[in-house]
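Intended use. Records like the one below are meant for learning the mapping from a protein sequence to its folded structure. Do not use them to infer anything beyond what is encoded.
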Amino acid sequence: MNMPAKSPSQRQPSPRVKQKYAQARQEVLETALELLQSGGVEALTLAAVAGEMGLTKQALYHYFSSKEDLVRSLVTMLLDAEIEALIGAVEKVESGAESLGTLIRAFHEHYIGRLDAFRSIYCQSQLYSSPGPTLDADTVKEEINPRTRHLFDVLEERIAGSSASKDRRERMRSLAFSAWLSALGLMTMLGVADALNDPLVHSDEDLLDTLAGVFDEAARNQA
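Structure written out for the chain above:
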């Protein structure tokens, strides 16, 4: 039996077309990131991205259905860069007991020059109190949580060891999560200080030394 030919709308795009589409989406995201870093969240609009790229706003809808869609994809890209930087830094240290201090310092180094990127990931609800490009629950569950779980998997393995008991691994994972929360809290306060132009009393290095020292000592005591 001869099957009816597929209509143009039913045909699957070729690998070359898929590649060009993915490249174009990436270019849009990189342009959005440049706007975010140069002008803050307020500067990140579809019209601004389109203008920077020499496109119409309507043309962007071929790649992102809305500003919310663009922001979600941008947050995912930024989080991937964060996770890569943190894991890369942790894997360079020889001692697992130094992993958490290294994590805290790497988190600070990654975001201190790009606070708007940090705010876009971790301060969505504060940035958008009214309906806007907030992160929905599905994005958090399907995109963000798996990435952060991978980070804590790596940290747990580094500071607990592969032969550790289940109880020890759980305690080390909790300690790693606490260190990450401390790094996040530090960057949140630095972001607030930056927005208010009111520097913290203590220097970044003093705060980093204190936090890194506390968690490295905790990890050694658990060994």
